[in-house]
Design goal:
Elements lengths: L1 H10 L14 E5 L4 E4 L15 H15 L7 E5 L5 H15 L4 E5 L8 H8 L5 E6 L10 H11 L8 E7 L7 H10 L3 H9 L7 E5 L4 H14 L7 H12 L4 H14 L6
Parallel strand pairs: 1-4, 3-6, 3-7, 4-5, 5-6
Antiparallel strand pairs: 1-2
Length: about 270
């Protein structure tokens, strides 16, 4: 029995092994192996290139700056139309904070399907001296998915609560992180409709900041395109006409559509956007 116990102790990883948060400023949580994978170069857009969301950017930057400085700050939910710059803003704010104070902030991405492992990840992050923004992109829940209950407890409701050195930012197309028909179904079938709906929407209440992102008007879309073109040195005399045609083929005007148009334009001119 002693030999078996010794063998198991040697095989079991020690707490904190393989979690060197000084190795980079950004990581991806690999739930299967309980590892933090360093990301040397984050795929991001520069903060000053994000147009049409200036107010949201100002609020999120201020909240993140407070947190990086060791002050109180709120979890944030960035919700709204697809392609409007929600995840781009989170990554851009992280870069801007670290440009001011190198190494001040760690960005850790957790995938939606790995939310059930969030308590383990928080257990790892709380042991580091670095301030960490935990980021989940495109967070939402299906009707049969009960993992939102564990997320509620982790964010604010549990005995331990959220570690002081960890902040949670999430993006979603849904304001309450679940489809409207889920909420309506609960209202129509529950014995006490009010309580059922309250259970569903209370998750979004755990986020102190709600930042809404909405579809762009045409002029703002053109400004985004022109700003990208100027930044990357793309000289196109009729750029607005081309950008309008591109948006019509996509059936939408958004920051994502503008970026995809610029990528196409740069490729045709034989240029890289790196």
């Amino acid at each position: 029995m002693e030999r078996i116990a010794s063998a198991l102790e040697r095989l079991a990883p020690k707490h904190g092994d393989g979690h060197n948060l000084g190795a980079a400023d950004a990581f991806v949580w690999q739930a299967a192996g309980e590892k933090l994978i360093p990301v040397p170069r984050v795929n991001r857009v520069e903060f000053n290139l994000l147009k049409g969301i200036e107010r949201q950017a100002e609020i999120l930057l201020a909240n993140t700056h407070q947190f990086a400085a060791g002050c109180a700050a709120n979890n944030a939910l960035l919700w709204g139309a697809r392609g409007t710059g929600k995840s781009s803003l989170v990554k851009a704010v992280h870069a801007k904070i670290n440009a001011r104070s190198p190494g001040a902030l760690v960005l850790v991405e957790i995938h939606r399907e790995d939310i059930p492992t969030l308590p383990r990840l928080l257990d790892i992050l709380k042991d580091t001296a670095r301030r960490c923004v935990l980021f989940c992109d495109d967070l939402s829940f299906d009707p049969d998915d009960a993992s939102y209950k564990s997320l509620k407890a982790v964010l604010e409701g549990g005995i331990e609560g959220r570690p002081e050195n960890v902040l949670f930012y999430a993006t979603s197309n849904r304001r309450h992180l679940m489809a409207r028909d889920m909420i309506d179904n609960e209202r129509s079938t529950a014995i006490n409709p009010g309580e059922a709906v309250e259970e569903k929407v209370s998750l979004s209440d755990r986020f102190g900041l709600w930042l809404g992102f909405h579809n762009l008007d045409q002029e703002t879309y053109f400004q985004i395109v022109e700003n990208y073109a100027q930044h990357y040195g793309l000289n196109v005399p009729d750029i607005r006409a081309q950008a309008l045609e591109w948006s019509m083929t996509r059936g939408a005007r958004s920051g994502r559509v503008a970026w995809q148009f610029i990528q196409d334009l740069a490729g045709k001119q034989g240029k890289s956007l790196s």
